[in-house]
Amino acid sequence: MTFRRLCRGRGGYPALLAAIHDPPETLWVRGEAEAVVLSAPSVAVVGARACSSYGRTVARMLGRELAAAGLVVVSGLARGIDAEAHRGALDADGVTVAVLGCGIDRDYPAAHRELATRICGRGLVVSEYAPSVEPAPWRFPARNRIIAGLCSATVVVEARGRSGALITADFALEDGREVMAVPGEITSALSAGTNALLRLGATPVTCAADVLEAFGLPPQASTAPEPSGDAAAILARLREAAASIDELARATGLDPGDVAAALIELELAGRVVESEGVYRSTIAL
Known about the structure:
Elements: E1 4-7, H1 15-18, E2 26-30, E3 42-46, H2 53-68, E4 72-75, H3 81-91, E5 96-99, H4 113-122, E6 124-127, H5 139-149, E7 153-156, H6 164-174, E8 178-181, H7 192-199, E9 203-204, H8 208-214, H9 229-240, H10 245-252, H11 256-268, E10 272-275, E11 278-281
Parallel strand pairs: 3-4, 3-7, 4-5, 5-6, 7-8, 8-9
Antiparallel strand pairs: 1-2, 2-6, 10-11
InterPro entries: DprA, DprA_WH, DrpA_SLOG, WH-like_DNA-bd_sf
Domain Smf/DprA SLOG: 9-215
Organism: Gaiella occulta
């Protein structure tokens, strides 16, 4: 495993990160991309580890569409929202950056080792911590200042009232960066943090175009053909609300086998995702 070091005050150190209140003296870097991607237009997509299927869908959609538009997607390699944002960017063959709260030689959590390898293939994994430094609870809030510091805007997808994602949003505000939030159900604890941000004046995110507008970028036109026949009917229903195969069969009058076949077509096209037997449209926002 090969590492590079970027030192504050020297060439290659990202200017946005250098401008925060407490920039790291050294940024350790690994991955195939050039360090210049750390200075490219970037957006942080963060949120709860124990997220809902809705949150996973939204995070992956945002990661995919923002990366497809040319933004670097930055997150923390954590379970839940962070991982889905990274995966979405990779789905679009885009660039994503993972910021660690441990030594640069560690993949944390270990379950995301394969994801970290994929990120290194197209983007970068970075840390302020040298090799062999163990993860510790206090390192992760410190890591969050780097996530916010690398980006012009931070998007919080889902967050409880005391979520670490809100720490990232606080750092972004302190640095004078834009904070954005995805509205959530008022009855869901996972939306308490994001809805509180909206009450405080965060920019609502109802689609990727809302984020692109903050960067002065036009919305991206879909290159995938619109589905037809059974798939079109099912997608129209899923745009209204998530549903199981049985619910879709009752709503559309189709045979469950035909519903299952159409869902496979829609999944392969990236139009829907499934979690615990429930299907959601990835373009419902």
